[in-house]
Structures are given as structure tokens and as C-alpha cells.
Design brief:
The protein is α+β, with helices and mostly antiparallel strands. It folds into 3 domains: 54-85, no CATH class; 96-183 and 304-350, 2-Layer Sandwich (Nucleotidyltransferase, domain 5); 185-272, LCP protein (Aminopeptidase), CATH 3.40.630. Helices cover 46% and strands 25% of the residues. The chain has helices at residues 3-35, 46-53, 72-85, 154-171, 186-192, 202-218, 238-245, 254-271, 275-287, 295-308, 339-350; strands spanning 38-39, 57-63, 66-71, 96-104, 115-124, 129-135, 140-143, 147-150, 177-182, 196-200, 232-236, 289-291, 312-318, 324-329, 332-337. The strands form 5 sheets. A 7-stranded mixed sheet has the order 1-12-9-4-5-6-13, sandwiched between helices. The longest helix has 33 residues, at 3-35. This is LCP family protein. Keywords: Membrane, Transmembrane, Transmembrane helix. InterPro entries: LytR/CpsA/Psr_CW_biosynth, LytR_CpsA_psr. The chain crosses the membrane at residues 7-34. It comes from Candidatus Limivivens intestinipullorum.
Length: 351
Amino acid sequence: MSNLKKVVLIVIGILLFLVIVTGVLFAAAMHSLFGSTNYETEPPTQAQTETETETEILDIQTSEEGVFYITETANEAKAETEETEEKIPVASDSDVYNILLIGVDERPSTGDTDSGTVMLLSVNDSSRQRSMITLNRDLTVEVPGQGEMPLDQVYGAGGGTLTAETVTENFRVLTERYMVIQFSQLVDIVDELGGIPVSISQEELDPLNENIRAICAQRSESPDPYLLTETGTQTCGGIQAVAYSRIDQGEGDAQAVRQYEIISAVIGSLGDQSITGLYGAVRTVLSGVTHNVPELEILGLLVKVGRLSGYEELQETLPSADLLVTEQTDSGEIFTTDWTEAAREIQTALY
């Protein structure tokens, strides 16, 4: 064998070795990232539990084929089937990845676990579109196995799994994955990102500083370094960002709008990180969320981060205002919608 061939083989061997080592190190780093997360396995839902346990016999019928026992579960299943037949099919596509982002602002003073923000994040590789759809949290939805309740109360009733199933059932968009983030944990996440841009008005300044004082009191910190005196767009740290998200003054669901702004800014800042900065930021983000996204899927999403910046961005609040309807019930006023049109609107936006 000539010396040239030997040199070529040696170079190829070295390159292969480097590729293998790099792959192993990358896989180890990704596994370490996943290990820092709060991964939830899939528990049985309320609807599944009821289907397995409720079998009270209501009637017995006979025919030429034999004896049939009519149970409560069978009647409920029939009723659910009849109702489902009136709904449009659930949209699903291998080129579209949906994940539900649930923002929960649980405060020690109230113990509340309602979700302040319910956002559907979607990536469509076919149309090269990334979408952030904010779902109206006050909308009364049909919850599998539990009847009707406002969307923002579903998380407290059954966690992320039930919330994702409820979104699929009502909005007819396949939503199997979810991430739950506590707004209190955003303090560390925003600080890791180096702050995020927030636009503050004169009307927001006083309640913002009041919230800063409250957060610092819970953390046994002095609020003085965090108090703001100027309005306009400025870079806010974690305590300031969370304080901003808790301002509830304003028209409509003003607090939900502000929470959406903070989450959007966090997601935007992730895309602006360098490779080394992204690893630290993602590690901090993942350690502060509860989710059911498998390790390989997280790896796939991280690999996509670079090219997602070239995708067209869509940000909307759905269902749109003209589809929302106010109804008076025995328990009070509720918000509902034309579910067929609302589902079509969301499917058109994402697919």
C-alpha cells in the first residue's frame, strides 16, 4: 500500500473518530438536559378511569344473537359517539408538530392552580411556518369525563394531560404534548437569558413596582435594586418580568395579554442565543417546566431551532372575537363559541 493511501486512511479514521466522539458528547449533553426536566409519564385520564369503572347494569335485552347487557358506560359511549359525529375530524399531519404551553401563576397566598395562559405552539415544516396561538382562557369547554368548565380551570382539575386532551377535543387539533411553566420559575429563566424587552406604560409603573415589592417579600430580598422609575421599552430581569405579568389593570383580560407578552419574549430570546448560551438557557428553561415530551422529540426540536428563525411567524388569539358568544346560564354568564367554525379557524391557521 502506498504512503499516500496510508495517509488518507489515517485521516479518514481520525475524522470518523472525531465524528463518533462529537456524537457521543452531544448525546450525553442532550441526555443531561433531559435529566434536568420534570418529565411526566402518561397517567390514565378521568375519562379513561370512568370508562373502566362505571359499569352499572341499566337494562337487559335479548335477541337472536344472544343476551345483551346495557350498562351506564355503554349509554354514555353512545351519547359521546353521537356528539362526536357532529364535530369535524381532528386535524393531524406528520409535518406539523403541536405542543401546548400552559402558564400557571400559583401564588402562596391563594394556592390557585388555574392556568393564566394557554398557548398552542406549532411548527409546520411543509409551509415553513411557526405559530403561537393563544387560546381564550375564559372560554367554556367540554372536558372529557368532567363536563363543562372554563379553559383556565382545566389544568387544576386534571393537569397537563387533561388540558391537552380538552384542547384536542374542542378545537379539533391533535395536541398530545404539553409543557407547564410556573410564572414564579420565570425569574430564573429570564435572568439566565440576560433579561427580556418589556414595554411599560405610565399606568403600569405603580402596579408593577407594587408587584416587585410583593415578590421580593416572598423571596426575602430588598426590592430596591428592581424598582423601576422610567417608562418605555427596557430590558427587564426575572423579578421585573414576573411582576409585569401579574398586572391585572386594563381592558379585557389584560393580565393574560401581559403573560402572553412575557412568554413570547422568552421564546424569542431563546432564538437569539449563541450555541453555548443556548445550552445554558435551555437547561434553565427545561428545569423549570413540567412536560410529557420524550427525550428524542426534545432533541429533534433543539436541532430545528436554528432554521426556525427562517420560518414565517404567526401570532394570533383564537377563536377570533367575532366567534365568541356570551350565554346566560343558571350558574351565571359564560363565554362560548361556534365550535365548528372555531375549529376550522384554528385548523386553517396551523395546517
